[in-house]
Specification:
single chain, alpha+beta, 5-stranded antiparallel β-sheet, 4-stranded antiparallel β-sheet, 12 strands
C-alpha cells in the first residue's frame, strides 16, 4: 500500500469517530433539553399552586382549599407537558408523584397514596390528605408547636410557668420580657425561648427534619404499594442537598416529590426531583428606632413602649445591626445590645 492509502484509511477512521462523537453529543443535548423541560414544567406548576394561595389568601387556620391547590398544580403541569387532553398520560404522570406537602403557617398536610380493603374483599389504592401535622419539638421545659412566625404554642408539661393555663399561645419573645414569667426566666436561662439564635436554629432544623422524614416515608410506602400492584417502574427517593428544596422553608410553601419518571429516546433515563415554591407571605420582624432627648433607642416590632409613640422614626430596620449603625442603644425587649448608660448629675455646692 502506498502512503496515500494509509492517509485515506486514517481519514475514514477519523471521520467515523467525529460522526459518532457528534451523534453522542446531540443525544446528550437532547436528553439535557428534555430534562430541562420537565424541570421547568414542574417548577411552573408548583409556583402556580402557591400563587393560588397568595391571591386567595387561602392559608392559615383551616381555610386552605387543598383540592383547589391540587387542581391548580396538576392543570398547570398537564398543560406544560402537553397532556391536558390525555387522561391516560395524566394518570401515568401522577404515579410518579408519590407525595405532595402543603406547608401552612402552623403545620403541614400530606397528600399521599393510601391502601385499603373494601367490603368486597378487594384492596384498593386512593389518594388522600392527612390532617394538619404540627411542627412539634420537645425538651425538658416544654412541648413546642412552632409556627412560621414568632408565635408559638407551648404545652407547660411540668407547670414551670406557674400559671393556670397548661397551653400558652404567644409570641415566644413575650416570655423574655413579660413580668408574668419573671420567675421562670430567672431560674431557666438555658431555655431556647431566651436565645433568639438558638430558637430559630432549632425551629428550622425541626421543620426540615420532619418534612424530609415524611417525604421519605410516604415515597417508600408508595413504592411498596406499587410493587405489590405489579408496577415495575424504577422508583427512588430524590437525593441531594436539603437546601435545594428547603429554600422556602421559612414561608408557606409546597413541596412536590417527582421520582422515577422515565425519559429519553428509549425511556431508559430516570428523572428525580423535589420541587418547591414559597408564597412570600411570612414577613420577618422589623425594628423601630425611637428618638429620645440625646440618643436613639431601638425597639423590636410589637414592643409596648412604641405604641402611640410620636418619637418613633418612620423608617423601619430589618436587623438590629442596622439600628446599631445608626448609633442606637437597645430597649429591654431586645435580649442583646448596649443599654442606655445612667447619667449622674453632680450638684454644685
Amino acid at each position: 500500500m502506498k502512503i496515500y492509502h494509509f492517509a485515506l484509511l486514517f481519514l475514514i477512521f477519523f471521520l467515523g469517530i467525529v460522526i459518532k462523537t457528534d451523534i453522542s453529543i446531540g443525544e446528550l443535548k437532547a436528553l439535557e433539553n428534555e430534562n430541562d423541560e420537565i424541570t421547568k414544567s414542574l417548577i411552573s406548576a408548583t409556583s402556580d399552586a402557591v400563587n393560588y394561595l397568595t391571591k386567595t389568601g387561602s392559608y392559615g387556620a383551616e381555610s386552605i382549599n387543598k383540592e383547589e391547590v391540587l387542581n391548580t398544580l396538576f392543570t398547570s403541569l398537564y398543560s406544560s407537558l402537553g397532556i391536558i387532553s390525555d387522561p391516560a398520560a395524566q394518570a401515568e404522570i401522577e404515579m410518579y408523584i408519590p407525595v405532595i406537602l402543603l406547608c401552612d403557617v402552623d403545620g403541614y398536610y400530606v397528600y399521599y397514596y393510601d391502601e385499603y380493603k373494601a367490603g368486597d374483599g378487594n384492596t384498593y389504592i386512593e389518594r388522600t390528605w392527612t390532617e394538619k401535622i404540627p411542627y412539634s419539638y420537645e425538651d425538658k421545659y416544654f412541648i413546642y408547636r412552632f409556627t412560621l412566625t414568632d408565635m408559638a404554642y407551648l404545652y407547660d408539661k411540668n407547670n414551670m410557668l406557674g400559671i393556670d393555663e397548661s397551653v400558652v399561645v404567644s409570641d415566644y419573645k413575650e416570655l423574655g420580657i413579660s413580668p408574668l414569667y419573671s420567675d421562670f426566666r430567672a431560674n431557666n436561662r438555658g431555655c431556647i425561648l431566651f436565645n433568639d439564635e438558638e430558637y430559630e436554629l432549632i425551629k428550622k432544623t425541626t421543620i426540615m427534619n420532619k418534612l424530609e422524614d415524611v417525604m421519605a416515608y410516604y415515597t417508600s410506602r408508595h413504592n411498596y404499594m406499587a410493587n405489590r400492584q405489579g408496577i415495575t417502574y424504577s422508583f427512588s427517593f430524590p437525593t441531594g442537598k436539603g437546601e435545594e428544596w428547603a429554600e422556602y422553608i421559612d414561608d408557606v410553601n409546597i413541596l412536590v416529590v417527582f421520582q422515577g419518571y422515565p425519559y429519553g429516546p428509549d425511556r431508559n433515563y430516570t428523572y428525580n426531583k423535589i420541587a418547591s415554591a414559597g408564597a412570600n407571605i411570612i414577613k420577618k420582624s422589623s425594628y423601630y428606632v425611637e428618638e429620645k432627648s440625646w440618643y436613639y433607642l431601638a425597639h423590636r416590632q410589637g414592643c409596648e413602649k412604641i405604641k402611640d409613640n410620636d418619637l418613633v422614626l418612620e423608617e423601619t430596620f430589618d436587623t438590629i445591626e442596622e439600628c446599631i449603625r445608626l448609633g442606637a442603644y437597645t430597649c429591654e425587649c431586645i435580649e442583646h445590645g448596649a443599654r442606655v448608660p445612667e447619667l449622674k448629675l453632680w450638684e454644685r455646692y
